[in-house]
Amino acid sequence: MNERGQRYELRGSALRHLEKIVLYAAGPTLPEECRDTRYYVSEIAGFIHVFEREDYGLIVQTLGVPDEIGRYLQYREQSLLKLSAARTVVVERDVLAAYMNDEDVPSPTSHLHLDRLLDDGIEVDLAPVMNRLADHIQNPNGSTDYTRILLEFAKLPRSAWRAAKERLVLSIEAAKNEEDVRPFRFYFPGTDCSFMFASFSPGKPTVGPEGEQARRVGLQNLTLIAKYLHKAAKGIGVLVSKDGAFLHLGWCLSTKPGNKIRR
User: Structural domain boundaries of the chain?
Assistant: First the structure.
């Protein structure tokens, strides 16, 4: 159960992959040999990740979503095995920086770029927007669709978060300046999902029954069009509209095949 009182059932059969992780808190008397241990290969359990607690905390805080952390762990396993064969020693910050910088294999100097990469990560972070999504849903009627929207974003790699953030910012600026611009779209093949970001047409009402209906229909139609153009199985749509000094962000999830454009 989450903080909003919603309960979700997790089945073991739904788990496609399990990562084995050992966390430890390093005291001042811990020998360097133990501190340098980053993994262990067990004949029974296979590859086991070994993390100092603070290192793991930095990884979770930086990467943010489960799928991205999972991709990091796969990269980490492959890299550490290669580095061990080459007798190259790295620290965890080397591995994290190399992953974020799309390096094939970490090097002992990869960590020198980490601060810049962390600063850059702030620019592509959608978490502040997504965390407020549930708090601004109107007429939810008990629906948990917003969690499915969050899940689709959580499945994206950092490069796709950047694409989403760029398009969201462009849509917000267009709405603020009351500019009539074409919708921004992209498609992520990994989850067969299209993403659409748009600003509401300037000059049209955005509040009251008429405005709410116009925004709802417009968002649904633009989301379906993007889904159709990309031949995607599902589509996420975001529509930004201006109401005086305030902005409305409307969100839409389309998963049903054969949905029709509404007029």
Answer: 12-123, 127-254
